[in-house]
Queue: 2 jobs
Job 1
Amino acid sequence: MKLYFAPGACSLADHIALHEAGLTFDHAKVDLKAKTTDSGEDFLIINPKGYVPALTLDSGETITENVAILDWIAHQDGALKPSGTMGHARELEALAYISTEIHKAFKPFFAGAGDDEKARPPGSSSGG
Ligand SMILES: N[C@@H](CCC(=O)N[C@@H](CS)C(=O)NCC(=O)O)C(=O)O
């Protein structure tokens, strides 16, 4: 299994979860501008969406999207696995909240935004 990651990116969550689950995995550092890995792989073949994380399983299948990858990892480990249908719903509720409401609020810090945009509270309009 191989985790495609970038330093300082949201793929850190998957890295931590794989360790927590005690899973053995390789990793490949992705240059997000060039869309290549440190071993020269074309990352767009791995994930045509061009962003990390991506997790390629031993079967050769690749999972993308943090919610899906973290959910898959949780199901590999008894201690992380959600308990029952409601437990799974709560897990997805938390992951979806982090992925959509919190993660997007950090984008200006990585996307070269100006100081005004960085100071704006999440969810508030830029006035445009
Ligand atoms: N919807 C994706 C978003 C992943 C994402 O935004 N990844 C960022 C790093 S935190 C990235 O790779 N950005 C590079 C790019 O979009 O070119 C998910 O939740 O996994």
Job 2
Amino acid sequence: MGRASLDKQPHEVAAMFDGVAARYDRTNTILSVGLDRTWRRATRHALGLRPGQRCLDLAAGTGVSTGELARSGAYLVGADLSLGMLGVGRRTRPDTVLLAGDAVALPFADGAFDAVTISFGLRNVVNPLAALKEMARVTRPGGRLVVCEFSAPVNRAFRRVYLGYLMRALPGLARRVSSNPEAYVYLAESIRAWPDQAGLATLVQKAGWTEVSWRNLTGGIVALHRAVRAR
Ligand SMILES: C[S@@+](CC[C@H](N)C(=O)[O-])C[C@H]1O[C@@H](n2cnc3c(N)ncnc32)[C@H](O)[C@@H]1O
């Protein structure tokens, strides 16, 4: 694959993730120095799922986010566009329900879920506004949304150091640990191009969600956006 461009078609996004699937979980934990586990746990807490509730984990990939959320006792369904990621997930997490599905045309009925969530996936969806609207469609009125996504560190000095890591150190590190280092150049560039906390909140609101708020994790490297489906 050539240099990763931010202007991708859905099948190119899926192909890129097919290419990193084999080492995805391990690479993530190395590149985030283990922080991904803390962020996933915080996402589970933010969702506040109760046993028996139905929750969709969109862009579930290998199911690493889905597995963490299932610890709540809720019934989890993971969906993703990349058959390669789903294949690794089905092999390594046979108890996790992982289905093929596109974020902008989900194979679920209106109001099918009590909650919908997406971790480190919305940034990769070609049309995030359409995906947020589709997520609202499959959530019951009063149901919840949590978006866990890379965001903008709030402290300026920290932000400079972080962007340096992202644009210089991370691609080099990825060359040593990932099965497709180019995908991690894309990762860095897509994080830089993604809206900040307030920008994403506006997008979530525009998609029809209400009570939109956010909380920063690790100084704003990641933000958790929460919202409620209008009744
Ligand atoms: C960085 S991975 C995140 C995986 C997992 N949620 C996690 O927390 O590690 C992003 C995922 O988004 C998926 N994706 C991108 N566009 C998608 C779309 N339109 N519909 C469904 N999944 C999509 C990719 O295939 C990839 O598996």
